Amino acid sequence: MPVHQEKKVAQERKHKIIQNDTKASQGQWGRAWEVDWFSLASILFLLMFAPLIVYYFIMSCDQYQCSLTDPLLDLLTGNKHLSDIWNKTPMLTYRAAAIYSLWVTFQVVLYVFLPDFCHKFLPGYVGGVQEGAVTPAGVINKYEINGLQAWIITHVLWFANASCFHLFSPTIIFDNWIPLLWCANILGYAVSTFAMIKGYFFPTNAKDCKFTGNFFYDYMMGIEFNPRIGKWFDFKLFFNGRPGIVAWTLINLSFAAKQQELYGEVTNSMILVNVLQGIYVLDFFWNEAWYLKTIDICHDHFGWYLGWGDCVWLPYLYTLQGLYLVYHPVQLCTAHAVGILMLGLLGYYIFRMTNHQKDLFRRTNGNCRIWGKKPEYIECSYVSRDGTKHHSKLMTSGFWGWARHFNYTGDLMGSLAYCLTCGFEHILPYFYIVYMSILLTHRCVRDEHRCWSKYGKDWKHYTAAVPYRLMPGIF
Ligand code: NDP
């Protein structure tokens, strides 16, 4: 096609997309435009208590051998005062501040300045410059997908240090765990506050901003859809993936190193946690391009929920099993260990295959094979705000015929497996499965509400064909 014609087609495409802004019914995207009292109450609750919850869990391990009830009992019986607990809490140190600053700077450098080369030699891996979904304002953002590369480089350096250079101890993360918590909080609050100010004064795309007029709601759920600095530094992709998720596996390795230092061995439960969570993290980076099409990137705005959540909640609460095992080294019997491994791998398989089936189905517009057969689906349509009718398909084959969110079920099975590695002496390590159940059930309801308002009666046909959400016959 001649260049001028190509330009015209591109312009027409852009024009069509921008029309789709008005087209894109606002209800189909992200958070609400108006705040109801329940959302406001939940948000105020989280803003006040989520940082305390994280502190309580980590302090319980540090001062009470991971007992969640003992600190409360001590306080209620007057055995201890809040000030006693606080005075025993390690404070922010220069060392932790230096480690954390170096860590975040290193991840920024890997993210911004190192274009992906993994896709050039890893067959099947999709990296390099990729397009995200259309935003409500009709923008298609480009992303440099180089998370796998960042993860590999970081871990190669970690192992090189542990085995050859010995510049720092592999227990460094555990040894500075609470001082680092203060650093993570400072970054989490700084980035959320910056995102809020940026949304008001210099948004990346003003048309993609949402204001409710309620300060707390906007702070928590975010104003800007895709805040960026420069062409490539995308807040959502960076903070979602790194530093939190790259750190996840390093944190677990540091906990394993601490076990080795304290007890002279690494227990099979610690190895299981490292392996199962390692698979989950690697899967995330292997599929980073796919991740651009998930709810986090396609629908959520960037506020405290993502900014603080990625800096603090994720690295501190998703790694509780490894932390617990440092204080309570559990050696599982072979049958128990194999059972947990099987549950974790089965959960991972279901999670990955379900996501893969939908991705394949949508990419090929249904022209593919699911479990060896042509997929069945329900034709659906939705009308955008400018009155244009659009068509889509909802698959009823494969795992998507078993339940409407079987990918979440797989995720939950994997989450349960991590917790079971810790035995049954304390409830603290089971926080993760409780939290994931709440998160994914809420997400399921949120997503279904959105789909129902998008597809109307077609969604009803789909829910009649696939009546269960997470578990066939149960829910
Ligand atoms: P999904 O990948 O399930 O995507 C939901 C969307 O898929 C719907 O909005 C709809 O979008 C489309 N869809 C729904 N049903 C069908 C169907 N039958 N056929 C085709 N398309 C359909 O949701 P998420 O983005 O929430 O989850 C992605 C993964 O990330 C999950 O596996 C989840 O477990 C995991 N996750 C993990 C978290 C963690 O903290 N560990 C947190 C959140 C998610 P459309 O409008 O296009 O029709």
Automatic annotation (TrEMBL):
The keyword Cell cycle does not apply. GO terms for molecular function: 7-dehydrocholesterol reductase activity. The gene is Dhcr7. It catalyses: cholesterol + NADP(+) = 7-dehydrocholesterol + NADPH + H(+); 7-dehydrodesmosterol + NADPH + H(+) = desmosterol + NADP(+). It comes from the Eukaryota. Its EC number is 1.3.1.21. Pathway: Steroid biosynthesis; cholesterol biosynthesis. The keyword Cell wall biogenesis/degradation does not apply. It is a multi-pass membrane protein. This is 7-dehydrocholesterol reductase. It holds the Pfam family ERG4_ERG24. Gene3D superfamilies: 1.20.120.1630. One of its GO terms (biological process) is cholesterol biosynthetic process. Belongs to the ERG4/ERG24 family. It is found in: Endoplasmic reticulum membrane. The lineage of its organism: Eukaryota, Metazoa, Chordata, Craniata, Vertebrata. Keywords: Cholesterol biosynthesis, Cholesterol metabolism, Endoplasmic reticulum, Lipid biosynthesis, Lipid metabolism, Membrane, NADP, Oxidoreductase, Steroid biosynthesis, Steroid metabolism, Sterol biosynthesis, Sterol metabolism, Transmembrane, Transmembrane helix. The chain crosses the membrane at residues 37-58, 92-114, 148-168, 180-201, 237-255, 262-282, 302-320, 332-351, 415-440. One of its GO terms (cellular component) is endoplasmic reticulum membrane. Catalyzes the last step of the cholesterol synthesis pathway, which transforms cholesta-5,7-dien-3beta-ol (7-dehydrocholesterol,7-DHC) into cholesterol by reducing the C7-C8 double bond of its sterol core. Can also metabolize cholesta-5,7,24-trien-3beta-ol (7-dehydrodemosterol, 7-DHD) to desmosterol, which is then metabolized by the Delta(24)-sterol reductase (DHCR24) to cholesterol.
